[in-house]
Amino acid sequence: MKTKINRRTFLQASVLGASTSFGSSSLLAASPAPVMKSNLFSSPAAIPAAKGPRVVIVGGGWSGLTLAKYLKKNNPAFDVVLLDKNQQFVSCPMSNVWMADQISLEFLTHSYIDAAKNNDYLYLNTTAIELDRVGKKLVTTMGSIAYDYLVLAPGIDYDYKRIGIENPEDEYALRMHHPAGFNSASEMMAIKHKLHNFKGGTLALTVPSGNYRCMAAPYERACMAAAIFKKRNIRAKVLLIDMNPGIRIKARGFKKAFSEYYPDIIQYESSADIKGINLQDRQINTEFDSYGFDDALIYPPVRAASIIEQFGLSDEASLQQEAKTDPFKYHLLDDEHVYVTGDSRSQPFSKSGNTANSEARYVAEVISAHAAGKEIDWRSPQTMCFSGVKIDPLESMSIIAFYNYDELQKSFAFDRSHVIEKWSEKAGQAGLAWAEGMYKDMFYS
Description:
alpha/beta, disordered N terminus
């Protein structure tokens, strides 16, 4: 689907307050470019000199990895540098079925070095700390790096304040003892250990409000936890506390799975607006009720990665502190050389791996066209995900959808969606094949 859009007209219209049922964002006039605050680490990084226009990408997730590869494919003259604070990639998509021992950790884990070597770009294990947009320079813990184009794809951070957690000690306790499991490999590993060593009682899982990472994943995780307990004959209840009015996606399929496979294990509570968590009493407090637990996996609402705010790029009117970007070209409103993609971008598209991969391919074309003094038509990202509901063998259901921009409503919405809510072993294998194909796309030439 291609749509010809006059961006100048768009940006002058009231569309800047666009919202949808699955996320909202307000795009305001961008603030002046922040200037570096200190000379700390500002000496040039000891890396090879640029052999062409340098594109620096911050964040080696599904978006950043895809961008690095396709920027080089679209324009081999680009000198592409990918930065990530981690030494290896561990996939969040498919981690739930890994927790239930349906795949190995090796399936999820991949080498940044191999990706860079196979696709002819430079990978640096470093952290970005300051941005000088006037001088087009990014400061990292390795030193400063000059850029012609900069892409920020840093993912998400959790926003515990939106569930009433104001005390840093309480937030730290939740992060350590009741991790969300959607932002790091350490969280995922801690959760798998919890699930396989649970002795019984009530395990509470929460579903955040807003546009969060992996919309179907909390419901899938409830199924995987219940499947593990059922397999191990553990007397346990999975208490799924949803801050939303109902299951956000594949609702009919998940409801049927809960009632058909896990009627005595999964207890689903919707419209539970979490107002606080009493860790000492092990109690989750909502607007009207309180729920006790023996252990919990607390997934709070999410926000754009804090680096977006630190660099002065976030929209203060956005509840999730997402970047102020052109919704069709992904660059900052006042800077066509700095782009934001993946989970920190302003558009309300799904924060999923396949969405990040497909939109990154498009943004790679946008940047290549800009460097050549051209423009391309907007193209919708593609959302696709598989959700496991049963194990041994793995049985899954799926969805595929695109997006459209409604000129009358001034908002994005799902378009051409196809949901298969009848789970099957065939769909389970299709999900594994999809993930394997995605990893090959990001890590191999």
